[in-house]
UniProtKB/TrEMBL annotation:
One Pfam family this sequence matches: ADH_Fe_C
Residue ranges constituting the Alcohol dehydrogenase iron-type/glycerol dehydrogenase GldA domain according to the UniProt record: 9-178
Domain Fe-containing alcohol dehydrogenase-like C-terminal, chain residue ranges per copy: 189-384
Entry keyword set: Oxidoreductase
Family note: Belongs to the iron-containing alcohol dehydrogenase family.
Keyword flag Nucleotidyltransferase: no
Gene3D superfamilies: 3.40.50.1970, Dehydroquinate synthase-like - alpha domain
GO molecular function annotations of the record: alcohol dehydrogenase (NAD+) activity; metal ion binding
Protein name per its UniProtKB record: Iron-containing alcohol dehydrogenase
Length: 390
């Protein structure tokens, strides 16, 4: 019997229109008045950052907005943000956006307090001192970053991703408002939604799973799977949007207290080299890793199929798992996720490098089945050349 710890440092306020209560909720959470708002240029153009800033200013806060954030956040942008937050004298960092914004905000909080570069804090438990409180307001139902203790950053020189994992960068407050996702276009709804589903699946099947994380992961699947196609098909489906948002947050809690695994290792490898959107990358590799991992714990993989309702209790674990592999491929196709080979930037000559990058990822040891660099190489080739079949 294993032992484990489970810490929940984030206060979660989830509900439609909770965004309008942001100033009140932040006032209850932090000391101080100076809020450094991290967002992206798109949300600035849409006026959402201005609305948030107005709420804060009306409540007596002093604000500064930082928009130097790109998909797959860069170490250089984090360093610029850290310097800006230090000059401003931020009492808290407020992240308004998707996973890239929230991950960069976490790194900015570290660099404001401790200086250096994000790479100095890579790995588990390498943030030596407390940072200012982080407030996360997600605008996608995908990463769950609003409740995780992780920040994934791109090393622009080496073109790889690395992860900072430390409870000190878990947000103090998450304001989770499904209404903020209503205008998300179908392709982003699809990719972020698949990211959330992968979080739940890998949290449940990885070697660092535990009973509490398992319960959260299975519950997340129940929210996400029946509603992902609905949300992609009709972004105005308020029930589907709500279910996707709560599922994403629960999945974030699950993997933050377990881990992700080989799907993320492969996705982060191509994200670092090709700048592929993270949710798209996860979706492309999920069926292949599921098939590869199934033999390590057939019962758990079969239980995923039964939990999401694609395999009745009467079928064997092997059949249930085969249905899961087939459905993950079909789901991605139905919601418009491209295949790996359809990405113009992909070059088979890079596969050895990608396999090495995947193998060196800190989550490789967590994969359900022991996986080698050669395994990763074959999986990249398989994803590029052949479909997964049940």
């Amino acid at each position: 019997m294993s032992s484990f710890s489970f810490q929940l440092p984030t206060k979660i306020h989830l509900g439609n229109h909770s965004f309008t209560k942001a100033a009140e909720l932040v006032r209850e959470t932090i000391w101080g008045d100076r809020l450094f708002i991290v967002t992206d240029p798109g949300l600035e153009r849409l006026g959402l950052a201005a609305k948030l800033e107005h709420l804060f200013i009306r409540a007596g806060f002093v604000t500064e907005v930082f928009t130097q954030v790109r998909p797959n956040p860069r170490d250089t942008d984090c360093m610029a943000g850290g310097e800006a937050a230090k000059r401003f004298g931020a009492d808290a960092i407020v992240a308004l956006g998707g996973g890239s914004v929230i991950d960069e905000a976490k790194a900015i909080a570290i660099l404001q307090a401790l200086g250096g570069k994000p790479q100095d804090y890579a790995g588990r438990g390498n943030v030596p001192e407390d940072v200012v409180p982080i407030i996360a307001i997600p605008t996608t139902a995908g990463t769950g970053a609003e409740v995780t203790r992780s920040s994934v950053i791109t090393d622009t020189e080496r073109k790889i991703k690395f992860t900072i994992k430390d409870v000190r960068i878990a947000p103090a407050l998450a304001i989770v408002d499904p209404v903020l996702t209503y205008d998300l276009p179908p392709h982003l709804t699809a990719s972020t939604g698949m990211d959330a589903l992968v979080h739940a699946i890998e949290a449940y099947t990885c070697k660092l799973s535990n009973p509490i994380a398992d319960g959260l992961a299975l519950q997340a699947m129940k929210h996400i799977y029946p509603n992902l196609r609905r949300a992609v098909r009709d972004g105005s489906d308020e029930e589907a949007r709500y279910e996707m948002m709560i599922g994403s947050t629960i999945a974030g809690m699950a993997f933050s207290h377990a881990d992700v695994a080989a799907v993320h290792c492969m996705a982060e490898a191509i994200g670092g080299l090709y700048d592929t959107p993270h949710g798209v990358a996860n979706s492309m590799f999920l069926p292949y890793i599921t098939a590869f991992n199934a033999s390590a714990d057939m019962k758990k993989h079969a239980n995923i199929a039964r939990t999401i309702g694609i395999a009745p209790a009467a079928v064997s674990d092997e059949e249930a798992t085969a249905r899961l592999v087939a459905e993950m491929k079909q789901l991605a196709a139905d919601i418009g996720i491209p295949s790996f080979s359809s990405l113009q930037e992909v070059n088979p000559a890079d596969f050895d490098y990608l396999a090495e990058s995947s193998y060196l990822n800190g989550s490789t040891p967590s994969n359900a089945r022991t996986i080698t660099k050669e395994d990763y190489l074959q999986l990249f080739k398989q994803a590029y050349e052949t479909p997964v079949t049940a």
